[in-house]
Amino acid sequence: MSVQHLLLLFAAAGVAGWIDAVAGGGGLVQLPALLLAAPNVPVAAALGTNKLASITGTTTAAVTYARRTKLDWRTLGPAAGLAVVCAGLGALSASAVPTSYLRPVIMVMLLAVALFVVFRPQFGTLQAELDQQARRRAIALVLAGVVIAFYDGILGPGTGTFLIFTFIGVLGQDFVHSSAMAKVINAGTNFGALAVFATQGHVLWLTGLGMAVFNVAGARLGAATALKRGSGFVRLVLLAVVTVLVGKLAIDQWA
């Protein structure tokens, strides 16, 4: 890998860390940059290396948020544990499910999220006064720790967005708190998928650790920006990320 490609890759990792910390979707930047910088690397190795860099950024963002916001650990603790297992199972199943079958479904779901956020301006801007009943926590637990975690292991695009939307819709959190909770779960999904890729020998450790340094820097800045600018800013970034995600999935599906 040339010096120019390494610099491009490290810069992309920093940008991806920032995007991930604010609204999810950093893989849109980081994974294509990795494939561009190292075109001869097997796709599985690129995915594993991407997870290595991503887990450092998501963990850093999760710690930053946790220090400055109040999180619902009654839901997050069990969900994060389940996320590790279910994302690992998703990674093991990745080769068995053609992504061409999943992309149209994910595009429809992302568009539905975007339209809901656009036409409900107050959605996610204020924390709802909801009783944190066991039923609501159970729904969030299953969606975040099982369904979305498995999806992250098997495919991945939009994981952070789906997590944010789940915590807003089910637990009544605002965008900032939902993004904070999403980082905790995303760290678990990254760890589960990374463990599978690592045992299969699909991780470029030196490259991934170099990317991790920049991903962490971007994640710290992104979390601080989201906390400072508030839910309205996170909402705008999330809509931008969803738009790009849908476009990317459409190109992959029909180009």
UniProtKB/TrEMBL annotation:
Q: What is its main location?
A: membrane
Q: In which compartments does the protein localize? A: Cell membrane
Keyword annotations from UniProtKB, A to Z: Cell membrane, Membrane, Transmembrane, Transmembrane helix, Transport
Q: How does it sit in the membrane?
A: Multi-pass membrane protein
Sorted alphabetically, which InterPro entries does this protein's record hold?
TM_pro_TauE-like (IPR002781), TSUP (IPR052017)
Pfam families cross-referenced by the UniProt entry: TauE (PF01925)
Residues that span the membrane, as ranges: 47-66, 78-95, 101-119, 140-171, 203-221, 233-251
Family note = Belongs to the 4-toluene sulfonate uptake permease (TSUP) (TC 2.A.102) family.
PANTHER family associated with the record: MEMBRANE TRANSPORTER PROTEIN YFCA-RELATED, TRANSMEMBRANE PROTEIN YFCA
Task: State the name under which the record lists this protein.
Answer: Probable membrane transporter protein
